[in-house]
Amino acid sequence: MLPACSLFERTSRPPHAPLEEAARVQFPLDLPADAQTLAGGTVTAMQLALDDFRPLGLKPHEGATEEERCLYQRESYDVSAAPGPEGVTFVQITLKPRLCEKQGAIMDMGATYAVDVKGRRILAVQH
Length: 127
Hints:
Helix content: 10-25%
Structural class: alpha+beta
Strand order of the largest sheet: 1-2-3-4
Low-confidence stretches: none
Order of helices and strands: HHHEEEE
Number of strands: 4
Shape: globular
Largest sheet: 4 strands, antiparallel
Number of helices: 3
């Protein structure tokens, strides 16, 4: 007989710092007043879109330029989300202005996603 947890699909999780490093983190008693609260459905839609657009662990090709390496990093992009009709959430991913532009303007580095949050799936992508 198999344990019940073996029936669940294992998902990848981000790496965690070693215990010694984690012990040095000092959490605030409360978050600052300017902390942002995002609805769970919005966060889910953003995560699904980002996982498709720039999967965790995606590495630049060998010999990539500094500009190309910048384009592979999730931190190089801004993400916006808005509710749509019938439970759809639209997620727009755009390159931060001038961040990766070492040799001139970069055009069309982003995408807009239509995400079905309840079904946890991407309905369509517009590049």
